[in-house]
Amino acid sequence: MNETGDVSILEKFQEPKKRFWLRSRKRPKSDAISISSMDISIDSVCGKKKRRRITEVASNIFFSLPSVSGSEKKRKRASNNQLDASFLSFPGTDVDTHNTTLKQNELAGNVAIRSWMVDIAVSNLKDLSSTLSRREVKRQEAIYELYCGENVLLNDLSALRESYYDPLLSLDIFNTSELDTLFGNIDSFIELHSELRDNLVKLRDQSGFTDIVGPTIINWFLQLETLYIERCRKQIWARHLLESRKLTNKRFQEFIKKKLETSHAVDLWTYLDVPRSRVVKYPLLVKEILKHTPSGHPDEISLKESREILLKLLNEIDKAMGDAECQLAKTKINPKGEFDPDKCVENAAQLITEGQLRDSRGMKYHCFLFDTCLAMTRPIRRSVRKYNISFPIVTSKEFCQDIDSTSQNSSGFKVGKHNLYVDDEHQKRHWIDALKRVFRFSLKEMEIAIEKENANHFQKVDLKKRTKEMVRENNFSFTLRRNLLRPKLNTDTS
Prior knowledge:
Radius of gyration: 37 Å
Largest sheet: 6 strands, mixed
Oligomer: single chain
Number of helices: 19
């Protein structure tokens, strides 16, 4: 290439000047504006913007909306507030026809969750805006949130039956009892929750307003006990069955893999856990409805009663799941009479926690902490989820929570004669709290036993005193009769 060509190239592609690469990447006077920079609210300045509840959004939208009978300019302003003007005015549309179509869509399983104002009351917005207060709107939003949750649950249960239950029923991977443990009676759950969803729709008047909902909720909550307690108890065994079958059955592994490769796929356990995760939300939903119910309303007493019913149900569910966890843990441990002569594992009523711990040499043990003892076990290689007891069990009376003070950052603690270690401080605190809990249980049991012994002792002492008094009374009466009869005998002889 000639010199002139070289010069022209250098002129076009000049060397960067000094400090060229040190210039700031941000241009102070740039015409480009990012979307995030448009947020100038207080929340954006303070930190991460907090998501608002759907009831607050709906009520704010409701009270910020202009009148429907205003000009076109006001309609455009309403559309800028994320409400389309077509929702607010239905030219040439009958209100009854719109409500009928909406109810058909609801019963068909429409799960679009927005708000009561947008989905239900939008066709009667002009009339409702002058009659409903902010609190009444929030109450309707809370009732509608309960309805939407039931709709979502029903869709999940239907997807569980179509995607997993029906195919597994024909593949012969699980037998009938195992399928019942995994899925329970899906049809019963669908029928039960469809009843609540349909009843909530029937309670609305022509404008979509729900006045009294408490008696319906109480009657429906009373039906949950039998179905949900048994389902949550079986769910502990279902999780164990699912994990063990994933490890041992290749056909099941291939089945799960193909299901997860499909679009919008959901894991099987996520579907199986849907009923349990739903039932724990009912107290919160009832509390939200009760929060926006004015005092003296007919629903006030019934909603409080329904909340008490739910709390009692959750306690029974928790107890049933705790018993199932304890029974499952017992089946994992092979009993050894020489290491557990008093059968503490067999007599345990509650599993506090379980997990992996290490000794001072780094040997790993799978430890089960029951309310009666601590069992240190080692897994069996040939068996899945089976453990052999490695040392004599440590009874709850031998627990001594002495934190190992060999170093400030030590993650060890002492249980009986064993120095055990965990990976971090969080696990250490978890185990120490669990051990203290068992230790408190044992102290209470000892106090109860002492009180019983004292009561029995006092009863025995009281019984002895009473018998002595009775003997004294008998002796006194016998002596008195003898003394009274003696003069009579003397007189007769004379």
